[in-house]
Write a structure and sequence with these properties.
Length: 292
């Protein structure tokens, strides 16, 4: 398979993953608010309570399928490019939230949606088609260690400081996103750089630890925060962490040539600005007619 074909398939998988990820988030949010509060002192009980909520279980299955597509995308396309496409999941998030889950978005949210879509078009047009061919072990250790510590620190701060529910939710959402980013970098390493014995790598443990912490942080943020705001923050921080990891760890190019670099940096900025415009007060208009 040519590099160009691999890139196209990888981007298609990333787009499908973005759709599934955000649908899964919205399902999980509906289930999480119906479950008892997540307690760090009772992790197994909290997980059981969450999965007994049918909406959460459905959301988790959908998210698991999206994660599989994500892994496929990471094996075929550069990490920073995959994460840039996943950032566009905010477009799917907005449409699904309004059309299928009873949320109403304002003009600011739709502006953010448009800016994000424009950034994605530029990213797609300026892609170099070059995959990852090397990685820096020192950079991998440094980036993963620093980002994991940041995510764990945010979780600890949220539980040991007096915040209102919205503030705690945003901290936990950011922590979950950062930890998702750690997992993405580790998965990229395992899928492409580690070789046949990659599953025996310590980065498998890193990915699992990040996943477990992010699972609880995300679930709690969905319980106490505003759905679209929390999901948007999680998505943005996850994608930023992974994009930085792709550049620093795997030496991925920001663009090809002066014009390409400028356009791609501008596009990344558009995606970030569009995402930043998404979090805003939202109100539930009505629940969808389907039930489980």
């Amino acid at each position: 398979m040519s590099v160009e074909s691999s890139l196209i398939i990888g981007l298609a998988l990333a787009a499908a993953s973005a759709l599934g990820t955000n649908a899964g988030f919205l399902f999980k949010q509906r289930g999480a608010v119906l479950a008892p509060p997540v307690r760090a002192s009772h992790p197994l009980r909290s997980a059981g309570d969450l999965f007994r909520s049918k909406w959460f279980a459905v959301g988790w299955i959908v998210s698991l399928g999206a994660w599989g597509l994500h892994v496929g995308a990471l094996s075929l396309a550069p990490l920073s490019t995959v994460q840039a496409v996943l950032s566009g999941g905010l477009v799917f998030l907005a449409v699904l939230a309004e059309r299928c889950f009873g949320f109403q978005l304002g003009a600011r949210q739709w502006l953010g949606l448009t800016i994000t879509a424009a950034g994605l078009v530029i990213i797609g047009l300026t892609g170099s088609g070059q995959g990852t061919h090397h990685y820096s072990a020192a950079a991998l250790i440094a980036v993963e260690g620093a980002v994991f510590a940041l995510g764990a620190g945010l979780v600890r701060i949220s539980s040991h400081t007096n915040f209102d529910p919205r503030g705690e939710a945003l901290l936990l959402a950011a922590a979950a996103g950062v930890l998702f980013g750690v997992s993405d970098v580790a998965v990229k390493y395992l899928s492409q750089a580690a070789g046949p014995l990659g599953l025996l790598s310590p980065w498998t443990l890193t990915a699992l630890m990040s996943f477990v912490l992010s699972f609880y942080a995300s679930a709690r943020s969905l319980q106490i925060g505003q759905a679209v705001e929390v999901i948007a923050i999680t998505s943005v921080t996850a994608n930023l962490a992974a994009i930085i990891g792709g550049i620093l760890v795997f030496g991925e190019s920001i663009g090809s040539g002066g014009l390409g670099v400028t356009a791609r940096v501008f596009a990344f900025c558009l995606v970030i600005v569009g995402a930043a415009l998404m979090p805003a007060p939202l109100r539930t208009v009505s629940a969808p007619p389907v039930s489980l």
